[in-house]
Amino acid sequence: MFLALPSWAQAATSLQFLGAARTVGGSACLLETGKSKILIDFGLFMSTEDRLRNNLLPFDPSSIDYVLLTHAHSDHGGRIPLLYKNGFRGKVVGIGATKALTRLIMGASLDYPDREAGALFGSQDVAAMMNNFMSLSYDRKVDLLPDVAVRFRNAGHILGSAMIEIWCKDGDQTIKIVFTGDMGNTSIPLLKVPFDVRDGDYVIVEATYGATQRIRNETPQFGKEIRNTLQTGGSVLIPAFTLDRTQKVLFMLGRLKREGIIPEQTPVYADSGMARRITRIYARYAGHFHPEARKLTDGGQDLFRFPGFHDVSGVEALRAHDQGMPAIYVTSSGMLDHGNAPQHLEKMIEEPQNLLAIVGWQAPGSLGSRLLAGERRVRIPVRREGKGGVGADSVEKDVKMRIMQFDLFSNHADACQMLNWLAGFGKTKQVFVVHGDKENTINMARIIDRNLGFKAVAPELNDRIILSADLQYRNLKAGAIPCAGLGGSENMKGTMDF
Ligand SMILES: [Zn+2]
Fold first, then answer.
1. How far is the CA of 8 from the centre of ligand 1 (A)?
2. Taking the model in full, what pTM does it have?
3. What spacing in Å lies between the alpha carbon of 99 and ligand 1's midpoint?
4. Residue-number span of the structural domain to which 281 is assigned
5. What is the whole-number distance in angstroms between the Cα of residue 105 and the centre of ligand 1?
């Protein structure tokens, strides 16, 4: 529904939250100046109750000048082809690695007709998006329109992920808006850490984890648990999302081998065709790597291949179980519901010496979440090859293998890291908290206000906020030291007021 706004509001600079408002999915923000209209992300709503929103376009797509894309996850860019289907003819702007990943992921999602995206738009709309994709480099300020300039900064979330700084003219003044997009955590030294932006009038931050401290340095424990499992003759199953999680797991396994924590000869089977293609893209962008990873690539090391590494798929990977040798299997899906992971689980679940290492978020109701909740008998969806081809089937099994969860692979900043990053600003006019559920976004806004002294709110879906260069700044609270260390700190409770 279009509301008639008073003429002063039509000419004003405004920001409208069209998704990821008090929810995680459907990231989308509409920035309007008196002359230009820009979307920041246009992603898929993921949850069952929000999915019906995917077809809604509460604006005329042909009136949009640009779409700025923070990164390749489909909850941020998955609906962009729908804009082209409905008359958008402008460009999508993102980092080059985001373009490469988006092309791969968008093409693949069309291969699955049951996916939501397949029904929303066709391959010609994806092609239109890719043909109009304008690649940017990090850290270069670009004048996009007469009244709008942008600069992409590394967000350290997945390869190519960016925070976006936007300057827009508001009369004879300038307003600077900063979007964090999804901000990475700093526990795995594969990608560069998030860039320290130091100034902005309005800041839009993510709150996937809300006001919780999540990330601890579990690297030693992760290595120890894998080593112990292998030493007792057990094998390890690591279900991992194909984008970013698989690459970080392989990077860490290579590092544990180099450090002698797990034996060099232990076979590691990477069983996912999609993950393999994504890993190849990661390997092409060493310039985006963390200095520690960069040192290795500069020395000729392949970060994702190491002694004992086997890049095999399907039947061949499953056959490895018959060799009776302790091994590590890295495979999708990350929640064990589809892909090749269930086939491996079927072979491993009844052996108490085996370890299931959960390294990603598990949606409520997924097989992974039920295993984590301690269910003792589960139904596993498996594929069977018969005369008529591959068919779906399921088997019921007792759960005897050990199950552990490791948070260190999470690729979102926790509250501590986000507050430290925001404290670098010194002053802001207003902070908006998005990309988290209702409780997390409201709590995060509250702790930003309380600890930093910045005005912070959790906007609701479709809220439109008028931005003004004349609005008073709020200065950083004197003596604010929100967290003692990045990425979570044991001292946090003493210094941060929840
Ligand atoms: Zn993301």
1. 36
2. 0.92
3. 15
4. 219-409
5. 13
